[in-house]
Design goal:
There is one protein chain. By secondary structure, the protein is of the alpha+beta class. The chain has a single domain (21-151), classed as Jelly Rolls (Sandwich). The chain is built from 3 helices and 7 strands.
């Protein structure tokens, strides 16, 4: 039992908890957008949506996170404890891209800026910054989603 507590004690006293890279063991899904396939983790619970991509030190170009909300409403995101710049793509209930926040930088100081969808959405896709521009993703594009394909490594 003491063995399991030791890393937490070191983490708390050293202040290294938030700096540690996190590797997700969540299963991914194949999301196709603008002819490109991404391996995405789903954030479907409040806890998953609150955590998002916080504390990660990298995000491969072919991976991302799809936030799924139980309702159709305007959404707003911030970059608190997010260490990597992101593209935020906002989709309606028909999977249609309705707005984007591109090249969003990590938050360096409180209060963190808020990045709104501006329109009602059900899905928000976070990808590495620059991905939407590099692939020519535009408003009106739609995505499709296929089942589990294994954990992100």
């Amino acid at each position: 039992m003491k063995r399991h507590l030791f890393p937490w004690i070191v983490c708390l006293f050293a202040g290294a908890c938030s700096a540690a890279p996190i590797r997700s063991q969540a299963a991914t899904h194949a999301l196709t957008l603008h002819g490109h396939v991404f391996r995405v983790e789903l954030a479907t619970t409040n806890a998953q949506r609150e955590r998002g991509l916080m504390y990660r030190t990298s995000l491969p170009a072919d991976q991302g996170m799809l936030f799924v909300f139980p309702y159709d409403a305007p959404q707003a995101f911030w970059m608190k404890n997010t260490l990597i710049p992101l593209d935020m793509l906002f989709f309606d209930k028909q999977h249609k891209l309705v707005s984007m926040q591109l090249d969003v930088p990590p938050c360096k100081a409180d209060p963190c800026p808020v990045y709104p969808s501006g329109k009602p959405v059900v899905y928000v896709l976070e990808l590495s910054a620059g991905t939407a521009a590099r692939l020519g993703i535009t408003i009106g594009d739609t995505f499709s989603l296929k089942g589990r394909i294994g954990p992100v490594r």
